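Morning - zinc ion inputs below, output right after.
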Amino acid sequence: MIVGCLALNSSFEPLTMVPLRRALRLVIDGKAEIVEADRERPVRSARLALPRPSVIRLTRFIHVPRRFRRQVTNTFLFARDRYTCQYCGRSATQLRPRESLTRDHVVPLSRGGTNAWTNVVTSCSACNTRKAHHLPEEAGMHLLHVPVEPHFVHLSWAVRRLTPTQAKYIRLFYGASVLHQLEALENRAYVHKSRYA
Ligand SMILES: [Zn+2]
């Protein structure tokens, strides 16, 4: 089953996963070409039938600004921190009913902290409330890991599953070791999700 479609830059650099509907729109508009498709399960609309794309390639090279690539979303932040509070070490599955995972700013925004990868960590709501507008040391709290900026590709796949065909393009561009790291991340995220469902 294809979860999404892998979008490659015209240089074949894997960019991101896009929903099937968006991938089809790009192809129909001539902005992308289908590289790999599931031809046995075409997508039909009133007017046309298209092979179901699993990998597309943009027809024109797009420059993706670094700041956009590295934007911190909670989905990626929680995946980076393995769905674990970086203060008390409890995972999402260990939280009480009214608790949730949140984004904590190590140096609070009110004190000049930013949303950069190196200043945000996953925190359970209880720890976040306790820390409030303090630095960790002021609140007597300690980070389990120093927050770092992850590789963009790790993030893109931390929360999604790849098909073998899609994985081939990651290996082509980044090498087998990156693919193995992605698979390790992916398995962790997947186990988490299925446990949580
Ligand atoms: Zn906590």
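Note: Residues 189-197 have pLDDT under 50 and may be disordered.

O.
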